[in-house]
Amino acid sequence: GGGGGGGGGAGKMADKEKKKKESILDLSKYIDKTIRVKFQGGREASGVLKGFDPLLNLVLDGTIEYMRDPDDQFKLTEDTRQLGLVVCRGTSVVLICPQDGMEAIPNPFIQQQDG
Amino acid sequence: MAASAVSNPSQLLPLELVDKCIGSRIHIVMKSDKEIVGTLLGFDDFPLSLVLCSYLPFLIFSEITPEGRRITKLDQILLNGNNITMLVPGGEGPEV
C-alpha cells in the first residue's frame, strides 16, 4: 500500500536491505562529557550528555540554556538559565560539539580600515 | 523504533525519560520564544510528533510578543512536535 505512515516505511526499508542504521556521528564517546548544542531558531544549550538515540534526540543533565537577544547579537552570560535534566529534540539540533572544543574570538570578518 | 538503538545499555534513552514523565509536570521549549508548562498525558512515539498536555494542575502557554511576555492558561493542548526544541521533566517554566 502506498499510504503507509512514515515510521512504518522506514522500518520496512531497514528489514528489506538488512542494513543496520549506522549513525555518522558516534555520540557514545561524548557520554558523561559536557557538550554544547545549537538548535534551529537560535537557541543554544550545554550540558552533560547522558543518553541519545539514532534520531539524535539527546538527554542532557545540568543543562544551561543560552538565549539570543535580537539587540545584543550573541552574549553568553546575558540570558542563561538552568534547566537541569532535559530531552533535546533531534530534529531541532543543528550542531553538537564538546564544550571545551570551542572558544569565542574577535570577529575576523570585519573589514580593516587602511591608513 | 530502531532495533539497533541499544548501543550502550547504561545510558538514558531520551524517549524513556519522556515516558517516565507521563502524569507529571513537564516544561516544553519550542524553537521560537514559546514555552508550555503542564502535565504530560502522553506522546506519539515516532518521531515524538505529538505531545498532549492537560490542565492538571495547570497548563500555561507562554510566548514572547513585541509587547512582552504573554501568558495564556489553557485546559488541554495537543502539541505538534515539529517545533519542539527541549523537554524538561518537572520543569518550572520561564520565570514570570
UniProtKB/TrEMBL annotation, chain A:
InterPro entries: Lsm7 (IPR017132), Lsm7/SmG-like (IPR044641), LSM_dom_sf (IPR010920), Sm (IPR047575), Sm_dom_euk/arc (IPR001163). Residues 1-21 are annotated as: Disordered. GO terms for cellular component: catalytic step 2 spliceosome; Lsm1-7-Pat1 complex; spliceosomal tri-snRNP complex; U12-type spliceosomal complex; U2-type prespliceosome; U6 snRNP. Residues 1-11 have a biased composition (Gly residues). Residues 22-102 form the Sm domain. Plays a role in pre-mRNA splicing as component of the U4/U6-U5 tri-snRNP complex that is involved in spliceosome assembly, and as component of the precatalytic spliceosome (spliceosome B complex). The heptameric LSM2-8 complex binds specifically to the 3'-terminal U-tract of U6 snRNA. This is U6 snRNA-associated Sm-like protein LSm7. The lineage of its organism: Eukaryota, Metazoa, Chordata, Craniata, Vertebrata.
From TrEMBL, chain B:
GO terms for biological process: mRNA splicing, via spliceosome. GO terms for molecular function: RNA binding. PROSITE patterns: SM. Residues 13-93 form the Sm domain. InterPro entries: LSm5, LSM_dom_sf, Sm, Sm_dom_euk/arc. Its main location: nucleus. Keywords: Acetylation, mRNA processing, mRNA splicing, Nucleus, Ribonucleoprotein, RNA-binding, Spliceosome. It comes from the Eukaryota. LSm subunits form a heteromer with a doughnut shape. Component of the precatalytic spliceosome (spliceosome B complex). Component of the U4/U6-U5 tri-snRNP complex, a building block of the precatalytic spliceosome (spliceosome B complex). The U4/U6-U5 tri-snRNP complex is composed of the U4, U6 and U5 snRNAs and at least PRPF3, PRPF4, PRPF6, PRPF8, PRPF31, SNRNP200, TXNL4A, SNRNP40, SNRPB, SNRPD1, SNRPD2, SNRPD3, SNRPE, SNRPF, SNRPG, DDX23, CD2BP2, PPIH, SNU13, EFTUD2, SART1 and USP39, plus LSM2, LSM3, LSM4, LSM5, LSM6, LSM7 and LSM8. PANTHER family: U6 SNRNA-ASSOCIATED PROTEIN, U6 SNRNA-ASSOCIATED SM-LIKE PROTEIN LSM5. Plays a role in U6 snRNP assembly and function. Binds to the 3' end of U6 snRNA. Plays a role in pre-mRNA splicing as component of the U4/U6-U5 tri-snRNP complex that is involved in spliceosome assembly, and as component of the precatalytic spliceosome (spliceosome B complex). The heptameric LSM2-8 complex binds specifically to the 3'-terminal U-tract of U6 snRNA. This is U6 snRNA-associated Sm-like protein LSm5. It comes from Copsychus sechellarum. The gene is Lsm5.
